[in-house]
Amino acid sequence: MNLRHKFLLLLALTAAAPALVTGLLIRRDMEDRLAQALTEQHLRTAHGEAQHVALYVRAVAERLAEPLSVPDALPREAPAAEAWLTARYAHQERLQRVGLFDAQGRLTAALSPGAPQEAEDFQRRTQALLASAPTGRPYLFSEPYLTAVHLRPAVLVAGRAPSGQGPSLVAELSLEELSHRLSTTSQAGSRLFLLDGAGRLLLDGSAGGGGPPAPLQAASFTRQAGTFHYEEGGRPWLAAFSPVPELGWTAVAARPREAAFPSLGGLNPATPWLLALVVTGGLALALFTFRSMGQSLAQLAQGARQLAQGNLQHRIALGRKDELGDLADAFNEMGRSLESAHRQLVHVNGQLLAQVEEQTRDLRQTQEQLLRSQRLVAVGDLAAGMAHEMNTPLSVITANLQLLLAESPEDSPERPMLSAAHRQALRMAEIIRELRALEARQRGEMAPVDLHPVVERAVEARIQELDTAGVHVVCRFHAGQALVLGDGKALDDVFHRLLGNALSAMEGRPERRITLATHVIGRQAVRVELSDTGRGIPREHLDRLFNPFFTTKQQWSDKGLSLAVCHRVIEVHGGKISIQSDEGVGTTVTIELPMAPAAQRTAG
């Protein structure tokens, strides 16, 4: 028997109007409290979606502004800047294109795949955004728009230098991920959507949903959270809206009112003469009925308060088969939905935190590479001065020592000292040549170079040393060419030096093998790996291997400049070099160089 029939029976059995009025007042008060709690929770849903949208856009803005806070972190030359943009942002699927703009709003480098028309539209919109932006703001956001060709929802996000006078990093952020989230988060029969600053529909999480209702369009200009009721398709709806921080958008959660507040049924008036039949029995039945209903409504109100306080695991167990039981079931279903949405939000927050930590590590590595590059540039400047000041007098000293050795008898007591002095003079000359080579790596003619012949020439140049030392060389090349844009002679010298280091590391080792492998990474870069079975490098030395004059070798003739020269050459080519090593196992040197443009077109 449902609640409607119970009240009809009660009215048929009693004329106790005061008891009926009291029960109705209690019921109305509990309904109002429950409606208020459910409305507040509905508003929480809209606020949570608004916060997620703001976090989604702001995370991109912070990633763009992060390198601008570090002086000289961005490459100045266009090829290097484009390579830097590719390495940092190419894997970000939500970023459709990224551009580096100077202080005057001119495009200096871009990562802009896709149709040329969309790239032009991106540049035009960015210049308009930068031109109209107020000074002193580290982040800028454009009005949302549809891309020129594919008509995808997007927004421009810009990171600016702290002073407001330097370059700007601007990205076109796709909003399709937000649209997918709204679709997956929306419950059956409900709607989650976003409005732009003008009250227009931006994203709609429901399939085939119409435009936003007119009252909500007006409410979006208030920039405050709130709720209101409206009708759509002949059905009353409850909508909760919350502004998205910094963007001027509005997040809206709408649900049919009958789904948000399941009906408790109504009370029909009863005929007075029927109530007069059994007054005594009616009073007893009224007391029992109202007590049972009051307890159930109290449980519902307590559950709503628990939900409003953040206890999303709370459930209501009435054990009733009437409308109050339906209301409890609907309440529990809403709690499960909110708990699921909360778990998703926590998961997304965790992902964003991991991305921030990864970006921090990338920034730290970039700073270390910048410091290492500055040290190499300083050594290059020192090399130019030393070559000019010391080369000529050292040549005179070496020539005079050679003349004295030639004129000195074999049994002369001075001859050992002259020989030692001559060897040291030759060593000084070799150090000056290494320093001049390090400085000279800053220049060179760049042209498409196939790395396979370069590696083969380096092996052939040292083949006699390798055979004498009993070293087995294995080459595993990628099929076809491995074209990069570079200086062939400089790259020859890099692999010649690396083979020499590997050869030295395998002295006295039972297994002596060098493996050379090449890989093409997508259409972006070529990777070369040189592995040996040498004695390995202590872990505490790995961070210092590319420092000038640092060496782990014991020979007096080693000058500690070979890896510094290699690092400088690879850096000038816009590439990266890294070393992994295990003591007693061996060492692997990995080089990544940007693929030549011609090779990229062929691969495409």
TrEMBL record:
<dbReference type="InterPro" id="IPR036097">
    <property type="entry name" value="HisK_dim/P_sf"/>
</dbReference>
<feature type="coiled-coil region">
    <location>
        <begin position="349"/>
        <end position="376"/>
    </location>
</feature>
<keyword id="KW-0067">ATP-binding</keyword>
<dbReference type="InterPro" id="IPR003661">
    <property type="entry name" value="HisK_dim/P_dom"/>
</dbReference>
<keyword id="KW-0547">Nucleotide-binding</keyword>
<dbReference type="Pfam" id="PF00672">
    <property type="entry name" value="HAMP"/>
</dbReference>
<dbReference type="InterPro" id="IPR003660">
    <property type="entry name" value="HAMP_dom"/>
</dbReference>
<dbReference type="InterPro" id="IPR005467">
    <property type="entry name" value="His_kinase_dom"/>
</dbReference>
<dbReference type="GO" id="GO:0016020">
    <property type="term" value="C:membrane"/>
</dbReference>
<dbReference type="Pfam" id="PF02518">
    <property type="entry name" value="HATPase_c"/>
</dbReference>
<keyword id="KW-0175">Coiled coil</keyword>
<dbReference type="Pfam" id="PF00512">
    <property type="entry name" value="HisKA"/>
</dbReference>
<keyword id="KW-0418">Kinase</keyword>
<keyword id="KW-0808">Transferase</keyword>
<feature type="domain" description="HAMP">
    <location>
        <begin position="291"/>
        <end position="343"/>
    </location>
</feature>
<dbReference type="GO" id="GO:0005524">
    <property type="term" value="F:ATP binding"/>
</dbReference>
<protein>
    <recommendedName>
        <fullName>histidine kinase</fullName>
        <ecNumber>2.7.13.3</ecNumber>
    </recommendedName>
</protein>
<keyword id="KW-0902">Two-component regulatory system</keyword>
<dbReference type="GO" id="GO:0000155">
    <property type="term" value="F:phosphorelay sensor kinase activity"/>
</dbReference>
<dbReference type="InterPro" id="IPR004358">
    <property type="entry name" value="Sig_transdc_His_kin-like_C"/>
</dbReference>
<keyword id="KW-0597">Phosphoprotein</keyword>
<dbReference type="InterPro" id="IPR003594">
    <property type="entry name" value="HATPase_dom"/>
</dbReference>
<dbReference type="InterPro" id="IPR036890">
    <property type="entry name" value="HATPase_C_sf"/>
</dbReference>
<feature type="domain" description="Histidine kinase">
    <location>
        <begin position="385"/>
        <end position="597"/>
    </location>
</feature>
